[in-house]
Structure formats: C-alpha cells, structure tokens
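Budget justification aside, the reviewers requested a transparent look at the raw inputs and outputs of the sequence design task funded under Objective 1. We therefore reproduce one unedited record. The lines immediately below are the structure tokens for a 210-residue chain.
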C-alpha cells in the first residue's frame, strides 16, 4: 500500500497515519516531522526551513523533493509507505511522478476550518518522538508526558491560532488542488471527519477497502 494522506493541518493525518502504519506494517513518512527534527539538530535543511514553518508558510518545493527522494529510497519503504503531509503542492506531486514514486491512493480527510481551529488549540506534541495528543479527544495517560517515549509534551509554535489560520489559507490555496490532481488519475478517495479517532479510522478502512 502506497498511500498519500491529504487534508488540512489538524485534520488528523498524523494520528491516522500512526494507526495505519502499525496495522499495515509500513512506515509513515511525515515531512513535517523530518523538518522539525532537522531544525532541532541544526542541519542546513533545518536552518532553511525554520522561518517558513514558524510563519505557517510552505517550505520551498526543492527542499521537500530532496527530502522525499532520499527517504523513499531507504529499504523500509520497499513494501509501501504512508505519506503524511507530502505532496503539498502540485509541483511536488509532479516531481514525485517524474521520479517514478508510485501511489495507489490519495485519501483526503475532510474537516471544516472552524473545527480545525478549535482542535489545534488542544493539540500537544512530544518534543522527542513527535507523537501527537489532544487534551480532550486523545489525552495522554499522564498530563504533559508522552505515552510513547516519556518525552515532554509541548504546544508546537505553528499551532498558535494566528499561525493555524495562515496554514489553513495555505492549505486551501496550495494543497487542496491536489484533490483534483489525484481525482484525474482515478486515485482520490475522501472521508468525512467523524466524531472520534476510531470512527475516522473505520471510515478510512472502508474507503481503502482494507
Ligand atoms: P505538518 O507537521 O505536516 O503540519 O508540517 C509542518 C510545517 O512543515 C508546514 O506548515 C510547512 O511549513 C512544513 N512542511 C511540511 N511538509 C511540507 C511539504 N510537503 N511542503 C512544504 N512545506 C511542508
């Protein structure tokens, strides 16, 4: 299964990717997580990306294409992968096609903007392993502590409400056109946001017929 998850920031792509990744035993590739790790480690890519991310803007396509080319050539991607947050622009999708990166399905999780803004206010992210939680919908077992690795849970800088609004605008302008791109290739499936994480996973399973 080579799957792309589409959807606005905060639509639940990361959460669903983690669940599907465990079930299907294939890696999730999140460019957001790769970029945050690069910033933390002070690499050249991290330095290039930092200002864009903090302003809620997209990192230039060339940087992303380089990251994805390198990551997908690693052996753990041979059986399949889940792409979380990439491609995010038509040029990225075209570049992936040109590189021969195969995709079976692009699945879009549809959530209204207002729901996203409310949801992002409660999101907490592990500073060590990037697992995400929500203070109401998906709370950690112990407040402020990651269930997965024991790391400290923090509020991502780009989850601040004004930045979320900028990211939503960017999503509608740059990323949403990818739905038509994959629809034209017969690869698009959509699911509507459900009241719980489990129900959204169930809707995704039905859409993917898995
Ligand atoms: P995410 O964790 O997927 O929400 O990504 C966080 C931020 O990283 C985004 O708001 C962008 O600034 C940047 N980013 C992640 N993936 C991409 C991508 N495919 N193209 C451009 N920028 C990206």
């Amino acid at each position: 299964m080579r799957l792309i998850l589409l959807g606005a920031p905060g639509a639940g792509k990361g959460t669903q990717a983690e669940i599907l990744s465990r079930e299907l035993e294939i890696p999730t590739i999140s460019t957001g997580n790769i970029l945050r790790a690069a910033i933390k480690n002070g690499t050249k890519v991290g330095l290039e990306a930092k200002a864009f991310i903090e302003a809620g803007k997209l990192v230039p396509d060339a940087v992303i294409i380089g990251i994805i080319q390198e990551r997908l050539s690693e052996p753990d991607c041979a059986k399949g992968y889940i792409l979380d947050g990439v491609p995010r622009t038509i040029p990225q999708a075209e570049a992936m096609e040109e590189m021969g990166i195969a995709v079976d399905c692009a699945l879009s999780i549809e959530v209204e903007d207002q729901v996203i803004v409310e949801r992002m206010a409660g999101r907490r992210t592990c500073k060590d392993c990037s697992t995400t939680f929500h203070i109401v919908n998906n709370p950690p077992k112990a407040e402020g502590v990651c269930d997965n690795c024991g790391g400290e849970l923090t509020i991502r800088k780009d989850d601040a409400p004004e930045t979320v609004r900028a990211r939503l605008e960017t999503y509608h302008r740059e990323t949403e056109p990818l739905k038509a791109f994959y629809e034209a290739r017969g690869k698009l499936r959509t699911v509507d946001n459900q009241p719980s994480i489990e129900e959204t996973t169930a809707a995704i399973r039905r859409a993917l017929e898995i």
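Residues 9, 31-32, 35, 52-53, 56-59, 64, 85-86, 88, 92, 158, 167 surround adenosine monophosphate (CB under 6 Å). The CA atoms of residues 140 and 147 lie 6 Å apart. Computational costs for records of this kind are itemized in the attached budget.
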